[in-house]
Amino acid sequence: MVKDTEVKQSNAHFANGNHGGLVCVFTGATSGIGASTLQKMVTMFSSTTFYVLGRSAAAFAKHRSTFTGIGPDCKIIFLEAEVSLLSSVDLAFTQEGLETCFALSYYSRMRLTLNLLPLLRNAPNPRVLTVLSGGREKIMREEDIGLKQHWSSTAVINHTTTMTSLALEHLAKNERRLTFLHVFPGLVKTDIIANLTAPESSGLWIRFQVLIMRSLVALLMVFIGVSPKDSGERQAYHLTSESYRPGAWLVGPTSDVIPPNSALEMYQERGWTEKIWEHTIGIFQSALISGDNSIRQ
């Protein structure tokens, strides 16, 4: 367990080291954990460029003024994009038929990571952090990885969590200089669950399940949820601490590295790191209408 005081001390020490001239890319930084992490990072770097991908420049405007005030020598560049669309990540404009929650939690994150690999390979300390549910992997419906036939809010969480861990492990095997962190932040007082919706084609039972989940999580957040500010401080620690060396790591709410659970070990032993990446590349190739033949496994 890394205590809050240790996190703050580490971040302060890093900030005093005069780190600058770097480039950081954020998605989901217009609110919640992402915005709080970006706000902390701006105070820890000098002369650094932060690219922020999001749906609404207007929604980000209030954060931009704050960030500019606390990090005047940093450059904040907002790129307006519908991140749930893989084509928006590629700066194209096509509709792809991918379910939004699944796309936001998994496919778009992997597509962005894949696109940034050439730059990450040349970075001095390349690090990729995805905040989801690292260490909470579950058994998946192996015959329906993309949940086209068996969608439910629980299934989406389970699939995207397990797939993320396996995909990052695949990338780490091929990118030996890069650090990949799959973080479970615990319950954070954000609106991410409140905004969870079932696909339009869902029946009443699925919609009812989503409603119950949203209500239960909202109640738990009142009693045991941590603030976005505290979570952002900890994510900044994950991005800058020397505790995380190159490789793929599962990181818990108190910043401990978590060993693979039985479900993840089972998939690792059966070669699913490669199977999941092949599935992912297949989705990219079928969803994107870009004529780009440069995608590699």
Notes on the structure:
The protein is mainly α and 297 residues long. The protein has helices spanning 4-15, 32-44, 57-70, 86-89, 100-121, 153-174, 204-224, 228-240, 262-269, 272-287, and strands at 23-27, 49-54, 75-80, 127-131, 179-183, 247-251. It has a three-stranded parallel beta sheet, covered by helices on one side. Strands 4-5-6 form a three-stranded parallel beta sheet, sandwiched between helices. Helix 2 runs parallel beside helix 3 (57-70). Mean pLDDT is 86; it is low at 290-297.
Structure, briefly:
By secondary structure, this protein is mostly helical. It is 49% helix and 11% strand.
The number of distinct helices, counting runs of at least 4 residues, comes to: 10
Query: Major sheet: order of its strands?
Result: 1-2-3
Q: Which range best describes the helical content: under 10%, 10-25%, 25-40%, 40-55%, 55-70% or over 70%?
A: 40-55%
Question: What is the residue-mean pLDDT, rounded to a whole number?
Answer: 86
- How many strand units? 6
Q: Characterize the biggest β-sheet.
A: 3 strands, parallel
Q: What string, H for helix and E for strand, traces the elements in order?
A: HEHEHEHHEHEHHEHH
Radius of gyration: 19 Å
Principal-axis shape: globular
**Which structural class should the secondary elements be placed in?**
mainly alpha
| Poorly predicted parts | 290-297
Strand content: 5-15%
- Straight-line distance between termini: 36 Å
Oligomer: single chain
